[in-house]
Each structure stands twice: as structure tokens, then as C-alpha cells.
Design a protein that fits this description.
This protein is mainly α. The protein has helices spanning about 1-20, 30-50. The protein is elongated and about 35 Å long.
């Protein structure tokens, strides 16, 4: 389950980067998803290091 969350988080970050640097208007929801993705990655790093 944790591996799936990590993959989803990476995909969300890639989508955000493409939309941000590409100039596409995706609305505010992508920024909320980006925050969730970063939290998921941080939790994975913290749990993996402990």
C-alpha cells in the first residue's frame, strides 16, 4: 500500500510540474494534490529511515 502511495505521489508531482511549467491552467485542485503528494513522500522517507 505504501508503494502505491509513493507511485501516485510521484505521478502527481510530474503532472503538477508539467502543468506549472507548461503554462496550462489546471485550477487550485492540483496544488492541493501536490501537498498531499509531498506529505506522502515525506512519510515514506521518514518511515524508511527509521
Amino acid at each position: 500500500m505504501g508503494n502505491l502511495l509513493y507511485i501516485i505521489a510521484v505521478i502527481l508531482i510530474i503532472i503538477w510540474a508539467v502543468s506549472f511549467f507548461g503554462g496550462y491552467a489546471t485550477g487550485g485542485i492540483i496544488h492541493i494534490l501536490l501537498v498531499i503528494a509531498i506529505i506522502a513522500i515525506l512519510l515514506r522517507v521518514i518511515r524508511g529511515a527509521a
